[in-house]
Amino acid sequence: MSVLELIIALPLLAALAVWLGAPARAASLGATFINLILVFYTAVQYWGKTGLAFTHSRPILENPSLSFAVGADGISIILALLTTLVMLAAIWQIQDRPAIFYVSSLLIGGGALGAFLTTDVFFIYAFHELALIPTFLMIALHGRAEPAQRKAVAWKATIYLGAGSLVLLAGLVWLVLEFSGGSKLTFDLEALRSQARLTPLPDAKQAQIFFVLLLGFGSLVSLFPFHSWAAPAYATAPTPVAMLHSGVLKKFGLYGLIRIALPLLPHGAHVEWVQNALLLMLLGNILVMGLVTIHANRLDDTLANSSVMHMGYIFLGIAAGTEIALKGAVILMFAHGISIALLFGLCGRMRNQLGTLEYNKLGGLATHAPAFTVLFAFGTFASIGLPGLTNFAGEVMIFLGNFTEFKAGALTNLQWTVILALWGVVMSAVYMLRAYRGIFHGSPATGLFMIDPAFSQRVPFIFLATTLLVTGCCPWLLLNLMKSAL
Amino acid sequence: MSVFTIEAGLALLGLALLLLEAFKPDISRRTLGLTAIAGTSLALVLFIFAPHDNASLPGFIQPWHQLDSLALFYKGFSLVITILVLWLTLECAPYLTRFTVDGKLAEMFSLPLIVCAGMMWMASARDLVTVFVALELVTVSFYVLVAFARKSAFSLEAGVKYLILGALSTGVLVYGIAWIYGATGTMSFDGIAKALANPATSKTTALFGAAVLLCGLGFKVAAAPFHMWVPDVYQGAPTPVTAFLSVGSKAAGFVVLTRALNAFMAEGSIIGSEIQALILVVGSLTVLLGSLPAMFQASVKRLLAYSSISHAGYLLLALACRESARFDLSSGGVVAFYLATYLPMTVLGFLGLGLMRANGLGEDIKDFTGLAKRNPLLALLMTLSFASLAGLPLTAGFLGKLFVFLGLADHGYWGALSCAVIAAAAGFYYYFKTILAMYTTEGTDVPALTFSGPAKAVAGALALAILILGVYPKPLQKVLTSDRPAVVAK
Questions:
Q1: A149: number of Cβ within 10 Å
Q2: How is chain A split into domains, by residue range?
Q3: Is the ipTM of this complex over 0.85?
Q4: Which of A78, A140, A180, B287 could form a disulfide with B423 if both were Cys (CB 3.0 to 4.6 A apart)?
Q5: Nearest to B481 by CA among B80, B70, B74
Q6: Using one digit for the tens of pLDDT, what is the confidence trace for A268-296?
Q7: pTM of the model
Q8: Pick from A406, A395, A386: which is nearest to A469 by CA?
C-alpha cells in the first residue's frame, strides 16, 4: 500500500465515521492533522527527486484498462500540500456548526487529494466529481442567503460545472481513444503519455482536442466567459466550503491542463487560433473581472470576483508554456489557494460577528481587533502580489516566462497580453487596498463592534499567513519539488 | 443436478406454495414468505454449484436450451432479484395488506418464483418459440402482481393498462415471429443468423418481420415510442412489484433482445445495417424521452419510472454498438454489466421508498424533505442509490454509462452519443433535486424514522455492492467474458 492511498482514504473514512456518529470536530481535525504530516513526509521524501514517485497500481478492469493507480510528482505534491493546509484551516475555523460542515469539508478535501494524487484519468475525473457534490449541497442547504436565492445560486453553479464536466469528459474520452494504441483502451496517464511521445498527433488535431479540454477544464476554473457561476457561489457558500472550493478544488482544472492536456498535446496550446482564443479569454478574466471587482461594494463580492480574476494569470502561465512560466503557474496556484482561503476564512468570521459586509457600513475595525487586522493585511498584500509573499514569486515567474525570447519592436501576442495583464495588478491594488482601508481604518462605524477572536481561533489563520510568508521568502522550497516535473 | 432441474423445481415450488395457501388458509404470511425466500436461496446455492456446460442438460431439452456466459449470468441475476423482491414484499407486508382484498399476500410470494423460473428459462432460449413461451410465463404472472393491491384504484388502473398493452405487444411479437419464420424458414436464432447471411433470403420480408418483432420487444423493455405505459404502471403497482418490473422484467426483455439482435446483426446479415440504424434511433429517442420528462416529476416513483425508461435507452444504445476490437466486452456483455450495476441501485431506491411508505410517508419529492435529519443512515444509502443512478463516478452507475459512451465514441456514433450525454446531464438534475430535498432542513420538526435490522443489513449490502462494482468491477467482467476468445489486436 502506498502512502498516497492512505492520504486519499483518511479524509473519506473520517467523513463516513463522522456521518455515522463519531465526534465530529475531534475526528475531522485528527484525520486532517495526520494527513498533513503524511503529506509533509512525502514532500520531504520527494525532495530533490524527479519523475513520478510513490507509485502503486491496482488494476480494476483489464480491457478497457482501468486501474486505481496513485503516484505523485512535484506538482501533485505541492497541490496536496495546499489541500491539506487549507483543509486543516477550514476545519479548524468551524465553530458551532452541525456535523455536515465537517463531513462536507472532509469530502471536498478528500476528493481533491484523490484527484491530485491518482494517475489514472478515470479516477482523476471521478474524484473531482466526488468533491463537487458536497460543494453544491452545502451552498444550497447552508448558504448565506434566503433559501430560494441560495438554491438558485447552487443550481447555477451545478449547471455550469456539470456542463463543464461533461465537456471535459468528452475531451478525456477523445484523448483515450486517440492515444490508446490499437489493441486496448487505456486510461492510464503514463501509458497515454508515452504513446503521445511515440506517435504525436498532427498539430491541427491537437489544437481541436486541446480546445475541448480548455473549455472543460476552463469552466471548472471560471475561465471567462464561463465564470458567472463563481462569484455568487463563493459569496453564498458557507465559509469552509468557500475556502476549500476557491482555494483548492478550483485548482483542479489548472492541474488538469498542466498534467494532462499540455504533456499529451504539446503543440495544442500554440496553434494560433487556440492561443488567441485562450489569450482573449484570460484577458477577459483579468481586465473585465478586474473592473467588475473594483465595482463590488461588499467584501464577499470583492473576494469572490478577485478569485475569478486571479485565475487569468495562471492561464497566462499555461498559455506561455515555457518551463519557467509553468512553474510560476504552479506556485501561483499554491499561493492563491492559501491567500484566498485566508481571506474567505476571515471574511466569514467578520460576517458572523458583524452581520454585514457592506463597505459603507464598515470602518475602523482595527481599533479593537488588531490581530485580526494584521492577518487580513497578510491576505490583502499577498493578493496584490507584494514581494515577500508567495503570490509575487508566482506572478513574476509567469510574466518573465513570457519574455524568454524577446525582440524589441516585434512583440508576440503573448507578450502584448502580458503587458495588458500587468494593469490587472494595478486593479488588484485598487480594490484590495480600498477594501482594507475602508474596513479597518478610518473612524469606527456606529453600532458595529468587533473584537479579536480567541487565540485558538486565530491559529488556523496564523498558520496560513505563516505559510505565505515562508514560501514567499523562500520560493525555492516549492521550486525544488519541481525539478523535472514539467 | 442440472441447471434445468433447478428451474423446474423453482416453478414447482411456486405452484406448491399457491396450493398450500389455498388449502391451508390459516398459514401465516411470514411462513410463506420465508419458505419462498429459503427455496429461492437454495436454488441460488444449487445453481452456483451445478455444472455449467451444455452437456449437463437433460437430452430432451438440449436443442432448446443453451448455457453460455450470458445465460448463466442472467439466471443468477434472476435468482438474486427474486430473493430481494420476496424479502422486500415481506418487509412491506403490513402496509401492503391494507390494500389487498382479504388482507393476505399469498400470491405475492408464489408468483415471483414462477416469474423467476420463466426468466431463467428465457435466458437460455435458443429459439423464438422458447422465448415466446417463457416471456408469456413472466408477463402473465406480472398481470396478476401489478394489480395485486386491488383496493387501491391506482393499482387496478395500472393492472388494466399493463394487461391491455401487454396483450397487444404479445400479439405484435407473435406476428413478428411469424414473419421471421416466413422469411427464414426457421425459429432458432442460429438458423435465423444463417438464413440472413444468405443473399437469396428476401430482404424486405425479413426486415419487416424483424422490425415488427422489435416493436413487440420494445413494449416489454419500454423503448420509445412504446414507453407510455411505464410511468402509470410503475406508480400504481405495489412497490416490490415495481422493483421487480423495473429490474427483472427489464433484464428478461434485454436477454431476448440481445439474442435476437445477435442473430439479426450477425456478420454478413443482409438486414444488419438497417436494424442497427433502427436501434440507434430508438435508443437515442428512448434516452431523451425518458430523461427529459423525468425532470418535471413530483413523485419519486414516477421519476424512477421515467429514469428506468432512459436506462433502457442506454442499454439499447449499447446493443447498437457491435463488437469493438479494443474492448473486452461484447455489446451483450456491456448490457449484462449495466444491468448488474442497475440491480443494486434500483432495488436500493425502491427499498428506500418502501421503507418510507411503511413509516406512513408519501412518495413525492417533498416527502423526502429532511430525511437526513430523520434517519441519517437511510439518507446516506438513498443518496448513494440516486447518485449511482445518475452515474456519479466511483459508483456502479458510472461504469455502465462509461462503457456505453466509450462504445458509441469508438464506433463514431456522435449523434447518439450527444443524445446520451444530454440525457445523462438531465439525469444529474433530477436525481440531485431529490438528494437536495433529503438534506434540506427547513420546517422539518418531524419524528425520526426507523427501520428494522434486517432492512439495514440488506440496504447496507446493496450499498456495498454499488461501491464495490463501482471501484472493483474486474470479477464481474471476468464472469461476462469467460467464454469469449481473447481479443485479437488489430
A1: 13
A2: 271-486
A3: no
A4: B287
A5: B70
A6: 888 889 889 999 999 999 999 999 999 88
A7: 0.84
A8: A386
